[in-house]
Request: fold
Amino acid sequence: MINSFESEKFFPMKLDNYSPQNRMLVAVDCIIFGFDGFQLNVLLIKRGIEPKKGHWSLMGGFVHNNEKVEDAASRILKDLTGLSDVYMEQLHIFSDVDRDPIERTISVIFSSLIDINEYREQISAEYEAKWFPLYSIPKLIFDHDQMVALAQEKLRYKAAFHPVVFELLPEKFTIPQLLNLYEGIYRQEFDKRNFSRKLLSSGLLIKQKEKEKSTSKRGAYYFKLDRRRYQSKFQSVLNFVSPTRHLGK
Reply:
């Protein structure tokens, strides 16, 4: 026969909450990298609340009780910048006890890499959302600098094993544009001739008759990606990633 103590042990009463447990807030922070055809940038806003009101920040906010963190990230990004329909990948969780000076808060980090020109009209001025060159960003609040550094490493790793950069380029692009993008991701200088030779030997580019002449008198030919071949032979692109000199932070 089971007494009342044993009954509670084996068949615990239903709880409405875990009252003895500590409470903490859950936030999301969004890191949006963007390529404008010349350099890699990161999107920042002026923080609208204390502490650190008016300082540069990533796009962040708290998760509501009735939403998933992924939905919270999309909502917060749209509310603070105007950007919508941006695919974001969950990267990491920052959970240092003292990372927020007001209250214990853990943050789920999301990141995305976009073509700035495709989203330029969506950017809102309400929170002074502004693109900064990745390696010239101002000091950020709390641990946001660490978040950006982590996202950079993830981006470099992804670019080394999958030619994600082609997804950022317009339908027609030049080899110097592609070179700028790779140098921005790796913050390293590439041998221009070697880069061009390996890229053209991949057989994935279709040369166009037109030239881009806004950056030089001689101009650079436009190319298009052969997407049919790209789907089956994209690994050949990875062979031309051979930087020669580090350019600093």
Observations:
- Residues 161 and 248 are 23 Å apart (CA to CA).
